[in-house]
From TrEMBL, chain A:
Organism: Dicentrarchus labrax
Originating gene: LOC127355735
Protein name: Septin-type G domain-containing protein
GO cellular component: cytoskeleton
Location, primary (coarse class): cytoplasm
Record carries keyword Zinc: no
InterPro entries in the cross-refs: G_SEPTIN_dom (IPR030379), P-loop_NTPase (IPR027417), Septin (IPR016491), Small_GTP-bd (IPR005225)
UniProt lineage: Eukaryota, Metazoa, Chordata, Craniata, Vertebrata
Residues spanning the signal sequence: none
Keywords: Cell cycle, Cell division, Cytoplasm, Cytoskeleton, GTP-binding, Nucleotide-binding
Family matches, as Pfam families: Septin
UniProt family annotation: Belongs to the TRAFAC class TrmE-Era-EngA-EngB-Septin-like GTPase superfamily. Septin GTPase family.
Domain Septin-type G: 43-315
UniProt subcellular location: Cytoplasm, Cytoskeleton
GO MF annotation, one: GTP binding
Gene Ontology biological process terms from the UniProt entry: cell division
TrEMBL record, chain B:
Organism encoding this protein: Dicentrarchus labrax
Pfam families xrefs: Septin (PF00735)
Domain of life: Eukaryota
Keyword Chloroplast: no
Keyword entries, A-Z: Coiled coil, GTP-binding, Nucleotide-binding
The protein's name: Septin
Family membership noted in the UniProt record: Belongs to the TRAFAC class TrmE-Era-EngA-EngB-Septin-like GTPase superfamily. Septin GTPase family.
Record flagged with keyword Ligase: no
Gene Ontology MF annotations: GTP binding
Stretches assigned to the Septin-type G domain: 38-304
Coiled coil regions, renumbered to chain: 342-390
Amino acid sequence: HNSPTFLFVYGLNKLSSESGTDLFGYVGIEAVLDQMRSKTMKAGFEFNIMVVGQSGLGKSTLVNTLFKSKVSRKSCTPNYEEKISKTVKLHTVSHVIEEKGVKMKLTVIDTPGFGDQINNENCWEPILKYVNEQYEKYLREELHVNRKRRIPDSRVHCCIYFLPATGHRLRPIDVEFLKRLGKIVSIVPIIAKADTLTIEERQEFKERIRQDLAANGIHVYPQKEYDEDPEERILNDRIRESIPFAVVGTDKEHQVNGNKVLGRKTKWGIIEVENVAHCEFANLRDLLIRSHLQDLKDVTHNIHYETYRVRRLNESNMDFSELGLSTWLLENGTADKWESESHL
Amino acid sequence: GFLKRVQTGDKGVRPLSLAGHVGFDSLPDQLVNKSICQGFCFNILCIGETGIGKSTLMDTLFNTNFENFESSHFEPQVKLRAQTYDLQESNVRLRLTVVNTVGFGDQMNKQESYQPVVDYIDRQFESYLQEELKIKRSLHNYHDSRVHACLYFISPSGHSLKSLDLVTMKKLDSKVNIIPVIAKADTISKSELHKFKIKIMSELVSNGVQIYQFPLDDETVAKVNTTMNGHLPFAVVGSTEEVSVGNKMVKARQYPWGVVQVENENHCDFVKLREMLICVNMEDLREQTHTRHYELYRRCKLEEMGFKDTGPESKPVSLQQTYEAKRQEFLVELQKREDEMRQMFVQRVKEKESELKEAERELQSRFEQLKRLHADEKAALEEKKRLLDEDQSSFSKRRAAAQLLQAQSLTANGKKDKDRKK
């Protein structure tokens, strides 16, 4: 912190190289990084994750495995009435979790009933509605005259879409959902309960899914258009080449080679969830939490939310610049201008 | 924020313990890395009389020679000059804008001296607000020019604040973070300085001037900030010249009676200022500017334009409704203006028309007059002609008669002759 560092000056108004570049000495600008770090630690983070998929695909288990805690209560088999009910009802639960001083308010949005009915037409509607409602809520807060210091963020930062491990292709319900929701929220598709696929079957399945996604013009996270620099592009290209991640989830621990590991015990062996040779859970966790969590939030805020906002403001014909300019005109007396034009 | 609510038992948000390492503790790092890629903006406004040492202090703070112009003392009005620089320290890129007042305190009448400063600050807020209200906006990439810190340079008179200082700071304290500094502090003795500082702070308090308080809510910095708050205003000395002291070269000012070392805390508060302004509180200064000063500006501006959050009977009003109402109001106003203009136009046309008619009538009467004159002249001429004709005809008659007579007499003579010959 106190070691002298070099300070380079690049004047925007093109200083000659003689002035400025030769002075070295400590200023302390890089301390701003620590300031920022402690500010965000104090304020805490919010993260909202939605899980979509038919029941029985292990949504709750996966979320619990990801966050190593009982975030979601596993739903028991729905009874007859629930099975016949015709709608997808979204279910939200929030928790505060802390790790090494970093506090996070985690909200998990579950979508029981999706894809479970006999007739699944339009089952994405309630989900679409929910996502847009959160954008609307944020927009309204943002447009208030008296705003909160920190606008509560309930927008969906990430939607994990569970594909059953059929080994074939995307089903019509998958295509419909991904096409529609892919435009308004960052979707991370995964192959659920992937322990029924061999490695070769898994690779082929993934390849076919990627083809289907491309053929239908579906862009999942991380979207190519939002890569900000070549470094990011390289990193994200590698991710794009391996999605959808084939995952297995569990909350049970077993002993393997003297270590306690998270795994599913079967008669033919123990599937180690965090072993990348067995499944891609660790890749998913790293993407979602350890490397791209902030990016997911940024993409939601800077891109999806802005897109929604543009559409809403255009719909309501709200062009503030029109009002702003006109107020200025009224205040600054365009009367003079008009008078001069009426001299005949 | 939400953490407070959790602690007081907010329903629906339960704390949960983790059975292992999840990995979101890397979040602050993820955030910081993104900020590093984007770079930071920091904008400092320096207010002070000409020659008080604003540019020198900036150069000393940032260890560089910014482009400096020596200003004259004869500026008719206070102006502001802003210069932007890209600086880098290790992997942190900073876009620094330094705004200096030019000619502050030089005029005979300083009543309006604060106005250009207030206008400048407001313009930057306005610019941000315009961007924020745009339909297609780009706040992510916006070059934030709002003033984050205002260094107010107090003259080292040793007595008290000038009335210009009080008036200016009062006008600015709700718009910007003010950090008062005593300039050229090497001209005051230590004991005088102590008394001076106390006098200044009490004058600020008694006049209700809100200066920037170094924040105390974060335990990591509360202690150092509390101490620093007690040293305000910082007595600073600036210098980019280096003098050899002991076996080192240090930034200093050399006098015949000694060397004032800029970075020696016994000599002046420069190090404290640098510590507070940059190393400890730069982020807080930026945040206060955005969440307090800018929000106040925005709120006032929107209210001025007629926007409210609640309508009559305190029912919440959507922005759309207010916008529609405002727009109707505006259209009505526009229509009124248009009608006024049209009326004025019509009025002008009428006036012009009657002017023209008048001119036409005049012209017409002149024409008539001329016509009459002409007719009279014509009649007179005709009369003359007639007389002339008469004359002529009577002359012709007489001539004809004369000729006849002559011819007759000739013939008579001829006959007589003829008769004689026979």
